[in-house]
Every structure is written in C-alpha cells, then in structure tokens.
Structure to design on (269 residues):
C-alpha cells in the first residue's frame, strides 16, 4: 500500500485594514480574519473595539505606529510577523485604514514572500474616504474634479530607495490645477506650512482646503480655509495628528466656507 504524507500547511500572514477608526466600518471579511487569528499585531490607531473580535486565546501584540511619535521599528515588526508565521501561528497584522494605502503593506508583502510566507490582504476604508464622508463631500465631482491624488506629506528620504526622487510639490500642484484633481494629503501635520508654500507655486491661494482630524470617530473635528491660510489654520485650531488634508474645488459646497485670498476668509465649518 502506498502511503501519502500530508503536506505541511504553508505559513501565512494576513494584512487586515481596520479602517479609519470607527469599528463599525470593519468589513465582514476582516472580522472573520481577526476571529481566526492566533496572533494579532495591532497598530496604535486601531480602535480597541476592533480587536475585541479576536479569540480569547489569541495573543495580541501592540506594535505602535503613530505619526510624529516614537514607533515600533518596521524591521522588528516584519521580523516578528515572519517568526510567528514560520512557527505555525495564524498571524493577522491589524492596521489602521487600508494596508496598501500608506500602510507599508507593500514592504511587508515583499519581506514575507521572500521567506516563502503566503500573504493575504483584506482591504479597509482609508482615512481619505472617511474624511470626505465627514465633510459631506465627494472626492470626485463632474463639475469640480476629474480624479483624486492621494499622497503622503511625510516622505522619508532615509527609507526611500536611492532611485526615489523627492516629492515635487510644485509639479503636483500644477498638475492638480491643470487636470482638476482633488489632493488628499496624509501625514501632513508636521509639514503643513512647507506644504502650503510649495503648493502655492501651482495652485491659486484661494483654493479651498479642509483638514479633518480623527476622521470617523466621535472626536472628529474639521476646519476649513483657503490654501494661502493652511499653515495659520493648523496653529489657530490646534489641529493634530492623525489628520487628513483635502484640497480642491470639491470643497466649494461646504457651508460657511468662504473662499477668498484673505486672512479673515479662513473659518471653521
């Protein structure tokens, strides 16, 4: 009689998008993945109610990742994911927003696959979409915007490949103006003043801007201004991370938004 050896299970890690904050915005697929995990690596921005879907026997490891704060090293997180998966654990990497939109999901996929580890990705609602919802606008609009450009305001040259050029904000602004695009800037709190000055090289000063802090959460708040007043808006309203900056004419319909290139035009909506 011929005997067959049962093939060993392939080690796997699932990258799960926990959404922008509101735990009710989780997908059903995300809930199932969280429930089946034996090990969860959880980012700081993930709402505590999200990991309540985990099994009582699951190990929950907090790997803080928050802009402008001390964070767990990415290399350590990748090593830990691989170590647990290769040990036979069902690993879920729980990230705020969507893993593939400024969530370093691409880096993690590459690292894990290089070690023969299968990677599944479950998408989540990204903060840019949640910010638009909270503002009551659409990021695209037939009368105002032909498309959307999502971009980081916190490019890290020391971690970028040597072939990766610095962000040309002037060119981005010119393209957004010429092609009628909405700009959605993530992680731009620390660089807001510099961003505004660079974008003014290609966008009019009266271009409407909104900043949404803690999108989708009960603590959400937003403030509106024109581009020439973006830096002053952050200072006056004491806006802090996590926040998303939305720039473009899709904001023209916001109630109480006065679009004028003057200091008294900026006001909170």
């Amino acid at each position: 009689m011929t005997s067959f050896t049962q093939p060993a299970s392939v080690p796997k890690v699932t990258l799960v998008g926990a959404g922008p904050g509101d735990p009710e915005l989780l997908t059903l697929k995300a809930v199932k993945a969280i429930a089946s995990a034996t090990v969860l690596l959880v980012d700081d921005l993930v709402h505590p109610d999200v990991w309540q879907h985990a099994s009582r026997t699951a190990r929950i490891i907090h790997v803080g990742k928050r802009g402008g704060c001390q964070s767990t090293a990415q290399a350590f997180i990748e090593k830990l994911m691989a170590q647990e998966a290769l040990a036979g654990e069902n690993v879920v990497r729980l990230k705020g927003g969507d893993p593939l939109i400024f969530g370093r999901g691409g880096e993690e996929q590459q690292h894990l696959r290089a070690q023969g580890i299968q990677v599944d990705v479950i998408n989540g609602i990204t903060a840019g979409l949640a910010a638009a919802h909270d503002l009551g606008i659409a990021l695209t609009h037939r009368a105002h915007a032909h498309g959307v450009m999502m971009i980081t305001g916190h490019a890290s040259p020391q971690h970028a490949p040597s072939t990766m050029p610095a962000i040309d904000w002037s060119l981005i602004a010119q393209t957004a103006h010429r092609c009628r695009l909405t700009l959605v800037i993530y992680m731009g709190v620390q660089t807001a003043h510099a961003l505004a000055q660079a974008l003014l090289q290609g966008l009019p000063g009266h271009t409407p801007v909104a900043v949404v802090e803690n999108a989708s959460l009960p603590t959400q708040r937003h403030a509106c201004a024109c581009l020439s007043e973006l830096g002053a808006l952050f200072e006056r309203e004491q806006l802090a991370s996590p926040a998303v900056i939305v720039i473009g004419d899709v904001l023209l319909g916001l109630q109480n938004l006065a679009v004028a290139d003057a200091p008294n035009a900026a006001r909170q909506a």
